[in-house]
From TrEMBL:
Entries under PANTHER family matching the protein: 2,5-DIAMINO-6-RIBOSYLAMINO-4(3H)-PYRIMIDINONE 5'-PHOSPHATE REDUCTASE (PTHR38011:SF11), DIHYDROFOLATE REDUCTASE FAMILY PROTEIN (AFU_ORTHOLOGUE AFUA_8G06820) (PTHR38011)
Transmembrane segments: none
Record-linked Pfam families: RibD_C
Organism annotation: Pricia mediterranea
Residue ranges constituting the Bacterial bifunctional deaminase-reductase C-terminal domain according to the UniProt record: 3-168
Protein name, per record: Dihydrofolate reductase family protein
InterPro entries reported in the protein's UniProt record: DHFR-like_dom_sf, RibDG_C, Riboflavin_Biosynth_HTPR
């Protein structure tokens, strides 16, 4: 069974975006970002919530098109609908059976893109297997948290940590519930 890997950029104080979804202070280039982009090539499946998908519009993503051309997308939303939708996109309800089927059928581990509400829902249902944090050297003070309003807990086992010259540290943790 494949793993869900939550690979996410955060501030030191645990925000994945600042107020009004502002991510402009996050490290955008350098060795750590290059490592992240290289790591994305290993995934063939990406899952995300509606807000994460729509966040891509700010960066030129066309509605209904894939954010990652080499991946099959599963967007979990009750309201998202497109007139012109790529074959690489599947819109799903929040449904654990879909998540379980993806974990069984995916050829690679599954990239959980973005976070907040959807990542919190997955955490509540103990579906996140690995947490990869791109820790940015900044404090945002407010914004979108990694797991939305989830209060679920879990133990993390540090598996790898690497610091980069651009200020990023990428920490990889196994999740135990």
């Amino acid at each position: 069974m494949k793993k869900i890997i939550y690979y996410v950029a955060t501030s030191i104080d645990g925000f994945i975006a600042g107020p009004d979804e502002d991510a402009s202070d996050f490290t955008a280039a350098g060795e750590g970002v290059n490592q992240y982009l290289a790591d994305l090539k290993d995934f063939q499946t990406v899952i995300m919530g509606r807000r994460t998908y729509e966040f891509g519009y700010k960066f030129g993503l066309e509605p209904g098109q894939p954010a990652y051309p080499h991946m099959q997308h599963y967007i979990f939303s009750k309201t998202l609908n497109f007139e012109d939708q790529s074959d690489q996109l599947t819109i799903c309800d929040y449904d654990l059976d879909i998540i379980k089927k993806l974990k069984q059928s995916s050829e690679t581990d599954i990239y959980l893109c973005g976070g907040g509400i959807f990542a919190g829902w997955l955490l509540e249902h103990k579906m996140i297997d690995v947490l990869k944090i791109k820790l940015n050297p900044l404090i945002l003070g407010d914004g979108i948290t990694m797991f939305g309003a989830s209060k679920n807990t879990g133990q993390l086992e540090l598996r790898e940590s690497k610091m980069y010259n651009d200020g990023l540290t990428i920490n990889t943790y196994g999740v135990s519930y």
